[in-house]
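In this notation, each integer encodes one residue's backbone shape. One such record reads:

___
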Amino acid sequence: MLRMTNIYKTFNQNTVNEKLVLNNLDLNLSDGDFVTVIGGNGAGKSTMLNMIAGVHFPDKGSIVLDGEDITGLPEHKRAKYLGRVFQDPMMGTAANMEIEENLALAYRRGKKRGLSWGITKEEKERYIESLRMLDLGLETRLSSKVGLLSGGQRQALTLLMATLQQPKLLLLDEHTAALDPKTASKVLELSEQIVKANSLTAMMVTHNMKNAIQYGNRLIMMYDGKIIYDVSGEAKKKLQVSDLLEKFEKASGGEFANDRMILA
């Protein structure tokens, strides 16, 4: 489903702030993979997701999604293939629009617009059924403004919107980091439920090593712009946090005491 080959990316080239963020990165994702991505600050995790989404372009290398070379494709043309949920719950929804209006926008992404009625009866029934799956009571609040929802409710709605069209690849960029532990746990469970129910291919960046082990069928660890550890299947299920700490300490030379990854 995804092939990233020999990806290089340097920010602020030829300045004192020059930083090599992705260094000869290679990554292949099979159809249906749910990959969790961990690593310290500056490891290149979010840059990798932004590279896939088209926010940044590689200095060198290629990105192929489901057989199509998207390396030079602009962000808006990739949008119909991708679903994305950001760390900030406010980024994925339109606060001044109703819940059903937000869902209608997501449902029409990549489609031609006409002058027919905005939301059909059948469409509304589909939204109600999808919202019911979230188990947050939102199916009875279709006309409520999204700005009135809690952070967790908005993030769950964003997750639903990102997967309404069953994207080729779902990108979850620390999408529970801004939520309280109980709400974060609920959103993570919903994420796994939606990915499995729709047989989606997904990548989830997280700083929480327990979550990285618990969710998905594959885990990759990044350091200094490269993938230094890639584990899946039964080997992943047997992992302990101590195993990941040992791998990270070895890769970083032990200089990781202040890293956010450890605090998680």
